[in-house]
Amino acid sequence: MYENMTEEEARQQILDSVGEYCEKYHNTKKEFEPGDRITYASRVYDREEMTNLVDSALEFWLTAGHYTEQFEKSFANYLGVRFCSLVNSGSSANLLAFMTLTSPLLDENTGNDGKGRELKKRVLPGDEIITVAAGFPTTVAPIIQYGAVPVFVDVTIPEYNIDVSKLEDALSDKTRAVMVAHTLGNPFDLRSVKAFCDKHGLWLIEDNCDALGSRYEMEDGWHFTGTVGDIGTSSFYPPHHMTMGEGGAVYTDDPLLNKIARSLRDWGRDCVCPSGRDNLCGHRFDGLYGELPFGYDHKYVYSHFGYNLKATDMQAAVGCAQLDKFPSFVEKRKKNFKRLYDGLKEQSAAKGFAIEDKLILPKAGKHSDPSWFGFMMTCREGAGRKEVVEKIEKAGIQTRALFAGNLTKHPCFDEMRRTGKGFRIVGDLHNTDEIMERSFWVGVYPGMTDEMLDYMSTTIVNAIITA
User: Fold this and answer.
1) Quick one: DSSP state of residue 193?
2) What is the pLDDT of residues 288-341, one digit of tens each?
3) Fewer CB within 10 Å, N side or C side of the chain?
4) Which of 271, 256, 257 has the alpha carbon at shortest distance from 303?
5) For 29-40, what is the mean pLDDT?
6) Closest to 306 in 3D by CA, of 262, 258, 267, 257
7) Residue 364 has what DSSP assignment?
8) Active-site positions?
9) Would the CA dihedral through 36, 39, 41, 45 be positive or negative?
């Protein structure tokens, strides 16, 4: 079949066939009919993702390569940051971001900045990190796994983000950082959190895994979430704003934090040469490191106890195609959110009541422009969450709880609750418990049609009436 073709001609024929296959078997959509299953999230892709994936497979480099480099550069440019490191998941991104703050290289930053502000300190075991319990566990897991202490504060309803009025109460002489997520695409109060961190010399990690494309207006203008703090993280798991199957990213403007993150991601090595490319700096055999002999191969010098958290080039190839489409994904999520919001109000009014009397609807935070991941609702007294969700699910609409609800109630905390050690709660977590008991959400992903959204609003209103 390929005997009279050059390699490039054969490759192009394969990619053309893959594109045709995708259009015929993957991108033929069935019209929605009431009762069809509506998932909370789904991949949105076309022939570009599939041909990129196969193109990478034909190269058979497999590990990080030119698609990875392209993605890291393009993703950083989109966010407006200097550095981006692609990793194998959003959970790995959170692990890497947190562990970056534990590097001995940060010990050189001591004292103050000359303006009376204390410089940020390296995180050590036993230090405290302010966070919330209403969210996904891998925002908190790296803190505990390292031996630091999560300090939990409550959240607000209907924003479902950290209650910034509790920050000062959570502060102690052991506090080193704030690590919190932008919940379901809704930015938390970055002005207040950033000011608090700057005042007390604390690191800020923005878990941006559910909020890619969201923007926040700081005093100096609009910024993408994930770029205001010291480090931001993203996830490219299939339900998220864009996907490459598995995958995640860590990004920052700080050269030292980037150097540490790249080292920890790549086994902890000191060398910055990418895989398969040796001696780019020209000093591979003329350095002195630790107590190693002079000239020891720098490619095998380790400055951290690291991991292997790299993604594959096949994943990055999919991500490159997704990133080209990503701005349109954000706009569609905003449009879908508004249609569902307006639909709930219109449908309930047509049946003689205000939806807000039964459900607390989501509210964007002040100074924010959310790229919504989901549409969060909290049942008021008299509308039981269990009954409402069961009716919605029975009608074919997938629902989700706000992940852990209250993480401190889960079995993973059994031993810590029993001993009273390993975490701290400031005040009570009243709203967190309310979310655990009364809240649920549905999707607004860009593949949803108006017909699906209208069916969702009708179904939710009917479920509220009959629950």
Assistant:
1) H
2) 999 999 999 999 999 999 999 999 999 999 999 999 999 999 999 999 999 999
3) N
4) 271
5) 93
6) 267
7) P
8) 240
9) negative
